[in-house]
Amino acid sequence: MAQTDTPNHAPMRLALGMMSGTSLDGVDCALLRSDGEARLMRLAHRTYPYKAALRRRLRACLDAAQAWNADGAEPPVLAELDKEVTEAHAHAARDFLRGQSERPTLIGMHGQTVLHRPQRGMTRQLGDGAGLARALGIAVVWRFRDADMAAGGEGAPLAPLYHRALQQAHKDAPPLCVLNLGGVANLTFLGADGAVRAFDVGPGNGLLDDWMARQCGEMQDTDGALAAQGQVDEGLLAAWLEHAWFARPPPKSLDRLEFAPQGLERLAAADGAATLTAFTAAAVARAREHLPRADGPLRWIVCGGGRHNPSLMQALRTRLTGSVQRAEEAGWPGDEMEAQAFAYLAIRAARGLPLSLPETTGAAEPTCGGLLSAP
Ligand SMILES: Nc1ncnc2c1ncn2[C@@H]1O[C@H](COP(=O)(O)OP(=O)(O)O)[C@@H](O)[C@H]1O
Ligand SMILES: [Mg+2]
After folding, report:
1. Can you point out the beta strands (E) in the chain?
2. In testing the pocket of ligand 1, which one of 158, 220, 302, 337 has its CB within 8 Å of the most ligand atoms?
């Protein structure tokens, strides 16, 4: 728990952040008390996994959304799943809040992304914030990405301002990089001069999760066990790194299904897992070419589910210079980071403070956002 004082500070507010990432693993809940600026009190958190049947339908919905590609009328399956995702959030929030001594006055709900096309000003998250507000009797901030995209931004990533607040609260010396390994991977660079830069770096766990589902009928390569038995196919890896994405300067944000690595299917299960794990790490290494030149090696703080994968952490340590720490080793939040970020952003949205900067999303100017739905 970290707290700093600012003079003339605004009142602290208790908010519940709810995040459902592109891994389709479930809904993360986290309570945060904050003024939306420098003062942070990190409180309870918990993940509510999606039921297997909903997860399967969401996976199929992702494919339907991809095929639709925002051309013409939206496939009806999206509206059907809107309801189910809202219900999953309401169920998670009810259960989570039952165990808490104090009720939040605000919820920040990110929603479940099924299509993200920033070039076309289009992003679609499942989950109805207005419905959630009615179900719980608590105001909900949602549609976090819309205003940023209307201002010419990528609409993502949105956690960087929370990363900066954490760095300041912890008095961690810059420069440092916060690396989030979710379904896709994104980083926030925090420079010595207060600079923030953020962008999606490439695949996170998504390709590996999909490979495990196809090859072994499993949700993930638990503890990196399969990758540890395989050999990296360096030729394929080099070819995948030719993807135009990696050379493209930021700001940039990814759709989960952007990468479809050619040649993967001819690999044995373990070699495929090893090569995909190396691909995620190599993409992070390549992202360094888009960072301001740092003097000396960078410090990396790794959050998101991928940090639980020792093969992936080892691949990062091999490919990055400087220290590579799991978030908790640095005293930072790990699995709950993103949910806390959306609690923080909800408090900022309610105060009319910007959620994104030109350096984090490419928006023309610091941009406020979020839609506030009263209960
Ligand atoms: N013990 C583990 N071993 C390997 N991978 C793991 C482990 N725990 C979590 N993961 C990976 O983390 C992913 C979930 O990460 P998360 O940060 O929740 O992503 P998202 O934000 O996209 O939902 C899982 O899909 C899985 O790939
Ligand atoms: Mg998740």
Report:
1. 13-20, 26-34, 40-49, 106-117, 122-126, 139-142, 176-181, 184-190, 196-203, 299-303, 324-326, 371-373
2. 220
